[in-house]
C-alpha cells in the first residue's frame, strides 16, 4: 500500500481516527481502478469493514455529498447498500495527502451475480432499485446545498474531453475513429439545447450487474461502488444501465422489458426523456468504449477483450439497425 500510505500510517489511521484497536487482519479486495485501493479489515467479534483509499482530484465537498447520500439511502430508506462509517470525530472521509482520501464502509457478504443468475427476478429487482435511487435523489437534493455538487456529465468541458480521447485511440487500427467521431457529433447535435429540459440529480453512473451483490441465502440484491456518482440528468443513469445490460449479455427483449417495467412502476419518464433515451444510450456506450480503448496498449489486448468486442458490436447495431430500440419498448407498454 505504498502508493498512498505506508502500512504503519494505514494502521495508525484505523486506530486513531476510527478506534480500531482490535484488528485481526487486513487484506486487499478485488475491484477498483488501481491496485491496493480496496481493503477488507477484520476485527474481533467477527466485525468486518471495507476500507477504500482513492485518488480524488475533484471538489472534496462533492465526495462528502456522495457519501452522505449513501448514508441517507441506508439509514432513511433502508436501501440495500453499505453504511459509511464515521470517524471518532464524526468525519466521513480522512485526507491522507493532497490527492488521496480514505473512507470506511460496512462489509456486505455476497457475490457478483453470474450471467445465469441474471434472470427475470434479478432484472426486476435492479429496475426497482434504480427507480428507488432516483426517487431518493429528488428528496436528498432538496435538502442539501447545490454548491456542494459538481456537474460532470454532458457539460461543455465533458464534450471536449470525449472528443479529445479519440486521439488516444489512434494506435488501434481496429477501430474507426472517424466513425466514432461522427456518432459523437450526431449525439451532441440531438441533445443540443435539450439537456436543461431534463430532470437533474445524483446518479450512480455505473449501475450494472457487476456493481451489485447477491446473497447466497435469500437472493437479496445490494448496490455497491458509488465511486462514479455525480450530478447529471437522471435519464443518464437509466441509459448507462441499459447499455451495460446490453454489453453484458442481457440483450433479449423479455428481460430488458422487465427491467424497464419495474423502473417505470416507480418513475414515469416524461416525453423528453423517452425521446432522448436511445440517443443517450448510444452516447454513453460510445464514450465508454472510447475511454477503454484509450487505455488499451496493443492489438492483442483489444482482440482479447470480450467487453470491447461487445461494445463495438452494439455501437454498430444501435447506430445502424435499432436506433430507437428503447423508445419503441416504452411506447409499446
Automatic annotation (TrEMBL):
Domain Aminoglycoside phosphotransferase as annotated: residue spans: 45-247
Q: What Gene3D superfamilies does this protein's entry cite?
A: 3.90.1200.10, Phosphorylase Kinase, domain 1
| A GO molecular-function annotation | amino acid kinase activity
Give the family from UniProt.
Answer: Belongs to the pseudomonas-type ThrB family.
Q: What is the protein named?
A: Aminoglycoside phosphotransferase domain-containing protein
Source organism per UniProt? Rotaria sordida
